[in-house]
């Protein structure tokens, strides 16, 4: 999967469901995507946040881009919106450590965030960057994923549900790989006293739910199809 900053719960369910999670960092950056942005809660409304990037372009690979100087502003926004959340005092230092790290490379910056939050949630999955895997980088799309699976000696590949339009089970089966898609259940939890707003960043989930609730309930609420 491409590296996403503080992604939605389905991304974390995918991390939890696999033995090795490949951070797909040697593909082109997608503008207006979720690599460097997501959504949080602001007074019962959705507020989108964006991590500033330097020289971001769809002609550059994700691991060729550096982050800008908006981290303090983003951190302050999260603090103001969630300072009264039940798990703020536990979670905010983690978010602060992620955002104020010294790393400037976008892929590694997000990779660190995935590792840090996984450690908090006690997810033992191994992370590896696709750029470190020796492979034929002239391949594209499905063939590149199959090449990575081959190099990793994988017999099972799990993708987010959106991958159904990109990857074909029969083609993976021809290579002795079981392709599955992760479909997240409808998940609700209490957000202050407001009407529930779904599909927000993991930041929102962590602020309103205990680590135990996330690890043993929320992370398990999906189907593999």
Topology:
Elements: H1 9-17, E1 20-23, E2 37-42, E3 45-50, E4 53-54, E5 66-67, H2 71-82, H3 88-99, H4 106-120, E6 126-129, H5 141-151, E7 156-160, H6 169-174, E8 178-184, H7 202-208, H8 211-216, E9 222-224
Parallel strand pairs: 1-6, 7-8
Antiparallel strand pairs: 2-3, 4-5, 8-9
Supply the key terms.
single chain, alpha/beta, two-stranded parallel sheet, 8 helices, 9 strands, 17% strand
Q: Overall pLDDT, averaged?
A: 96
* Head-to-tail CA distance between termini: 18 Å
Total count of helical runs of at least 4 residues:
8
Alpha carbon gyration radius: 18 Å
Share of helix among residues? 25-40%
Q: Characterize the biggest β-sheet.
A: 3 strands, mixed
Low-confidence stretches: none
Relative strand content: 15-25%
Structural class of the helices, strands and pairings?
alpha/beta
């Amino acid at each position: 999967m491409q590296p996403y900053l503080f992604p939605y719960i389905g991304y974390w369910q995918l991390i939890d469901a696999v033995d090795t999670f490949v951070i797909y960092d040697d593909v082109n950056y997608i503008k207006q995507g979720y690599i460097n942005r997501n959504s949080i809660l602001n007074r019962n409304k959705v507020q989108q946040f964006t991590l500033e990037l330097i020289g971001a372009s769809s002609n550059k690979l994700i691991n060729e881009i550096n982050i800008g100087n908006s981290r303090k502003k983003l951190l302050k926004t999260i603090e103001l919106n969630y300072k009264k959340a039940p798990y703020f005092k536990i979670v905010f230092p983690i978010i602060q450590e992620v955002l104020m790290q010294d790393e400037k490379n976008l892929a590694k910056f997000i990779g660190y965030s995935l590792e840090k939050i996984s450690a908090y949630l006690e997810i033992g999955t191994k992370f590896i960057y696709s750029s470190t895997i020796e492979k034929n980088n002239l391949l594209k799309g499905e063939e590149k994923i199959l090449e990575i699976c081959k190099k990793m000696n994988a017999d099972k590949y799990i993708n987010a549900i959106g991958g159904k339009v990109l990857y074909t089970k029969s083609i993976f089966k021809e290579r002795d790989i079981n392709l599955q898609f992760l479909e997240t259940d409808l998940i609700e939890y209490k957000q202050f006293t407001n009407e529930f707003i779904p599909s927000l960043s993991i930041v929102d989930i962590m602020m309103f739910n205990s680590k135990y609730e996330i690890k043993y309930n929320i992370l398990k609420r999906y189907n593999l199809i």
